[in-house]
Design a protein that fits this description.
The protein is mostly beta strands. It contains eight helices and 41 strands. It has one domain: TonB-dependent receptor, beta-barrel domain (Maltoporin, Chain A, Beta Barrel), CATH 2.40.170.20. The protein has a 22-stranded antiparallel beta barrel. It is globular, with a radius of gyration of 26 Å. The two termini are 48 Å apart. The N terminus and C terminus are likely disordered.
Length: 727
């Protein structure tokens, strides 16, 4: 017997567009209903994730938010958020910092898309709460919480270009213990949008290159989370993961273009322990103290597929620029490790104040034998932060609040002012002390929310930016140099937001201005700046020397608009982002400041969607995304594009709902890039998008649950009710 799934009230709310009932935590580090969050927060909900059917986090963010841009590459995600790149975006996994490449591009394939419950996005400098890396904003990926006594789940997705995505999970709950084990596998054969290389006008054209737009890659990860509820108020956990990735590059016949002599390998590992102690004996208690200690490692290797002369060490340990490597050998390029401890407390105080305070200590270690003089470098940072949340009632309807119904209270007829000041004190062993303040305010009146924010950001140079020295052979030989004389980057972020909700309609408009001083970027410098041994080794073959330098200043400014409407089973929405950027860079050749555009900037980006959802069984979705031209200082601009996507899913339960055994089967299918757009710009120049053209996919998901799931719904409802009244 096949029966449609019965949806919970929360899921029904999501379908009917009442995502304002979502509980969010990222903006302030404390729980708030989305509609009452003092700091503007964008949410990609569980239902949106299910309808969209994204293959990766890049696919999800790029398709459902206009603020992001991606170019998938061998070294990482090449992500940009409101004009600023990876280095300025902090990615959290359940509130904890994601560890990937601490000096460049995050590897977002560490995140299993089937394990995501929702995504919270807070734009702008949030350094008072989160510290370094958060000048552009924060992305907090909230994972699914499993509470069944037995859970078995499998999801297999297969698509064009042999694209395989596999997810397996095993959950157990027995007494005071819970365990969840997760395995994920991702593979793609990669694709080639063009066989043409960009060559100088004087050179022979190359039209049969073997270079791919996206190379073949395989990665897998095994992760475990173990939780022990020692007491009703005390929870302890331990977690760990191991991750491997290989990128396989084709071999061609044109030196400097498609002759590749090594593949790339990554090895990641993590371990963490921690706990949470909740104040009080009631389920509505919001006060808590948490402690988290984690270790993370990210290692990157060259795996040689041909005999190669590259930087290496002889038997006496001396660095040789033309050391021979043979097929099957590996060379460690970088081994990055981080140990971090974080203690945080949330306390409800008299007068409607909610205080958050925390301590952080972080140790970063980098080993790069062929890229750092002395082979290793390290850095230590400590921080103390405090934040207060205060709601002030400015006016109230004549009816006594305590006598009103829940519906009356949710009408939000009161006028309240919410203030959230914060302060963070950082100490870095190389850059000393720095104080960064933050202030957010929200005026809530009926269906209208007005928000304003100002915050300062502070970001010290990474170990790579200060210490690296290495060669890369592309269309020419390019040398990259670190700079020990870099200054720390600072920023001032200002935003104004207006949000109006009436029934099924929600409209949000945000204007922002982000000024970054001493912004660090790679700048081309005279070849005479290269170390003498490299100039002697490569001579005239050394094409460019690029060094990390502080720009005088940089700014991003823009407007984000979001409009959503839902009626019964139908939902529609759009998001639009206007962006303008500029920066000043010192021109060594002409001894002057030059005004430039920040790389990757597009003035206009947008997304649109239309979905139809039949409660409990199936749904259809049409999605579009577009971008105008992306600007770059060198190697050409990326073309604008417009891409459309069609998705569908159907779920059913083979067992009657009263049964203690619950099996849910979901079938998904979709067509991405319906109109087959493909950017065929020659290799060596920038692309607007790396999409290969029209692709198709299908997914089969099976979830088996046994035992009674812990009923957290009432807990969260009571917490939300309490927070609502506090707000």
């Amino acid at each position: 017997m096949l029966m449609p799934l019965s949806l919970t009230a929360a899921a029904q709310d999501l379908i009917t567009g009442d995502s304002l009932q979502e509980v969010v935590v990222t903006g302030t580090g404390t729980q708030h209903l989305l509609r009452n969050a003092p700091v503007q927060t964008e949410v990609i909900s569980a239902q949106m994730l299910k309808n969209y059917g994204g293959r990766s986090l890049e696919d999800i963010l790029g398709g459902l938010s206009a603020s992001f841009a991606f170019n998938e590459g061998d070294m990482g995600s090449q992500m940009q958020m409101n004009g600023l790149g990876n280095n300025y975006i902090l990615i959290l996994l359940d509130g904890k910092r994601l560890h990937g490449d601490v000096g460049g591009e995050n590897d977002l394939s560490l995140i299993d898309p089937y394990n995501i419950e929702r995504i919270e996005i807070v734009k702008g400098a949030s350094s008072a709460l989160y510290g370094s890396d958060a000048i552009a904003g924060v992305i907090n990926i909230i994972t699914k919480k499993r509470n069944e006594s037995l859970l078995l789940e499998n999801a297999t997705r297969y698509g064009s270009y042999n694209d395989l995505r596999q997810h397996n999970g095993i959950g157990l709950a027995f007494g005071q213990w819970k365990s969840y084990t997760n395995f994920q596998l991702q593979h793609s054969d990669g694709w080639q949008n063009t066989a043409t290389e960009w060559t100088p006008s004087s050179a022979t054209p190359i039209t049969d290159s073997r270079n791919k737009t996206v190379n073949e890659h395989t990665n897998w990860q095994l992760a475990e989370q173990l939780t022990w509820n020692v007491l009703p108020q005390l929870e302890l956990y331990a977690s760990g993961s191991y991750y491997r990735k290989g990128i396989y590059r084709p071999k061609g016949k044109y030196p400097k273009y498609d002759v590749k002599t090594f593949d790339m390998k990554y090895r990641n590992a993590s371990a963490a322990i921690g706990g949470k102690w909740s104040h009080g004996l009631t389920q509505t208690a919001t006060d808590a103290i948490t402690l988290d200690i984690d270790w993370n490692r990210h290692a990157y290797y060259h795996a040689f597929t041909s005999t190669t002369l590259a930087e290496g060490f002889d038997e006496q340990g001396r660095l040789i620029l033309d050391f021979p490597y043979f097929v099957g050998q590996q060379s460690l390029q970088s081994d990055q490790q981080r140990v971090m401890a974080h203690m945080k407390g949330i306390f409800s105080l008299a007068g409607g104040h909610r205080l958050s305070a925390g301590l952080e200590a972080r140790h970063d270690y980098l080993k790069a034998p062929t890229s750092i003089a002395g082979e290793t470098a390290s850095d230590n940072t400590e921080a103390l932060y405090v934040q207060d949340e205060w709601g002030i009632g400015l006016s109230r309807t004549p009816t006594d609040r305590s006598s009103r119904t829940s519906t009356d209270r949710n009408s939000q007829s009161d006028v309240t002012l919410h203030l959230t000041p914060g302060l963070r004190l950082n100490r870095n062993e190389a850059f000393g002390l720095r104080l960064t303040p933050k202030l957010s305010a929200m005026l809530a009146a009926g269906n209208l929310r007005l928000r304003a924010s100002w915050s300062q950001g502070f970001k010290t140079p990474t170990l790579k930016e200060t210490n690296y020295r290495y060669i890369r052979e592309m269309t020419s030989i390019i040398m990259y140099l670190g700079n020990k004389n870099l200054d720390a980057q600072t920023s001032n972020y200002y935003s104004l937001n207006a949000e109006y909700t009436r029934g099924p309609l929600n409209l949000t408009v945000t204007g922002y201005y982000n000024k970054v001083d001493n912004m660090i970027a790679l700048v081309t410098v005279p070849r005479s700046e290269a170390p003498a041994d490299y100039r002697q080794q490569y001579g005239e073959l050394l094409g460019k020397v690029r060094r990390y330098e502080n720009m005088e200043d940089a700014r991003t400014q823009g407007v984000d608009v979001s409009l959503r409407y839902s009626h019964k089973a139908l939902a529609a929405g759009l998001s639009y982002s206007y962006l303008d950027t500029d920066a000043h860079v010192y021109d060594n050749d002409h001894d002057r400041l030059e005004k430039v555009t920040i790389d990757g900037m597009a003035h206009h980006k947008g997304t649109v969607f239309l979905t139809w959802q039949k409660p409990g069984s199936w749904g259809l979705g049409l999605y579009g995304r577009f971008s105008t031209k992306r600007y770059y200082q060198i190697d050409g601009n990326g073309k604008g594009y417009q891409i459309w996507r069609l998705t569908g899913h159907y779920s059913f339960a083979p067992h009657p709902s009263p049964s203690t055994l619950h099996t849910i089967i979901t079938l998904e299918a979709g067509i991405d890039n319906i109109f087959n757009y493909c950017d065929r710009t020659p290799h060596g120049l920038h692309l607007g998008t790396t999409t290969p053209g029209r692709t198709v996919y299908a997914t089969l998901s099976v979830s088996f649950k046994a035992g009674k799931k812990t009923k957290f719904t009432n807990i969260f409802n009571s917490k939300n009710k309490q927070n609502d009244e506090e707000d």
